[in-house]
UniProtKB/TrEMBL annotation:
Residues 27-275 form the Rab-GAP TBC domain. This is TBC1D22A. The lineage of its organism: Eukaryota, Fungi, Fungi incertae sedis, Microsporidia, Enterocytozoonidae. SUPFAM superfamilies: Ypt/Rab-GAP domain of gyp1p. Pfam families: RabGAP-TBC (PF00566). It comes from Ecytonucleospora hepatopenaei.
Length: 333
């Protein structure tokens, strides 16, 4: 590894994971996020000399999940710039659910340099539905592809076309800003495979939460809130406001809808560097306590409105992360 952000975590080509996790918890510079996430998600091993082989093998595996179709005619599928589509049969119901959810995503997370890459979300989410039949697809999963799309597609393509001046990153796909054919099919698919394997590894770690959300995370959050701030706990109970009304979305989408994307990357990196469920609970508790004055004394509708619209509240993420660490030790000790 070059002398870079992670140099102090590496010795003789091997990563010290304790140091690596500790360093990542405080945030990772944009240029190193792809590497960091592959390590934190367990895609890369501690041995840095295995990285190229792992990426090559994953690319081959991903290609085996796709098939080439020059003239796509299936309903509710986006056109692929590589003419490669998920090869597995998926029910029309699931295809439609995924299609609608992708369309709901902000264009800046689908369209890069005037090119629509929505098909990448479709391929990845369809393959995931096949791999995980007990879950298939749950609304909000498309949001969890976003960080990997930004790192391995958006950032890489914008870097590739950095010599093209005065283009908008968000625009209609018909506008002739860049020629996607200048990027090789293999390169596009290589980037796409990185998105898939990161998302797949994330689902492997948190997929069970989609099935048992209420019985595990939400109930545990209620229990811990009573310890951390009994006054808030009792007040929410008094106005008959169940945490489920807002915490469910927080956990389902890992808070991505609650924060501006660059701030959210700090949250996500800290999440990957921690005990996953404990982090989600402690961060949620810290966020609730932060909103204390917007909860106590307010009506049901006011509290719901505030807690479901945190994205425009300009909340200090570092403050919440620090509070979450404090709560972790408060709960444990």
């Amino acid at each position: 590894m070059e002398n870079n952000f992670f140099s102090d975590c590496v010795n003789n080509g091997y990563i010290n994971m304790v140091k690596f996790n500790k360093l990542c918890y405080t945030g990772v510079p944009v240029k190193y996020r792809g590497f960091a996430y592959k390590v934190l998600l367990g895609i890369y091993t501690k041995d840095l000399y295995e990285i190229n082989e792992i990426d090559s093998n994953n690319f081959i595996k991903y290609m085996q999940m796709l098939e080439t179709k020059e003239n796509i005619a299936e309903k509710n599928l986006f056109k692929s710039h590589t003419a490669s589509y998920c090869k597995f049969p998926v029910s029309e119901k699931i295809i439609h659910q995924i299609y609608i959810d992708i369309l709901r995503l902000n264009k800046e997370y689908r369209i890069v340099c005037g090119i629509d890459f929505s098909y990448i979300y479709m391929n990845i989410l369809l393959i995931n539905a096949v791999k995980r039949p007990a879950i298939e697809y749950i609304q909000g999963m498309s949001d969890l592809v976003i960080p990997f799309f930004i790192i391995f597609i958006k950032n890489e393509i914008e870097k590739y076309f950095s010599d093209v001046k005065h283009f908008d990153t968000v625009c209609e796909p018909d506008e002739d800003f860049v020629d996607v054919e200048k990027i090789s099919r293999k390169q596009l698919l290589s980037w796409e495979s990185s998105v898939f394997f990161c998302f797949d590894a994330l689902m492997h770690k948190i997929g069970h939460n989609f099935v048992n959300m209420h019985d595990t995370l939400i109930n545990r959050t209620k229990k811990e809130l009573k310890k951390v701030d009994k006054e808030i706990f009792l007040y929410l109970k008094k106005i008959d406001l169940d945490l489920h009304f807002f915490v469910f979305r927080w956990f389902n989408c890992l808070f991505i809808r609650e924060f501006e994307i660059e701030k959210w990357f700090n949250i996500f990196t800290s999440f990957l560097s921690s005990e996953k469920e404990e982090f989600l609970i402690n961060f949620a508790l810290a966020l609730i306590v932060k909103c204390r004055k917007d909860i106590l004394g307010k009506e049901f509708s006011e509290v719901i409105s505030h807690m479901q619209n945190l994205s425009n509240k300009n909340i200090d993420v570092c403050e919440i992360l620090g509070k979450a660490v404090y709560i972790k030790y408060e709960i444990e000790y």
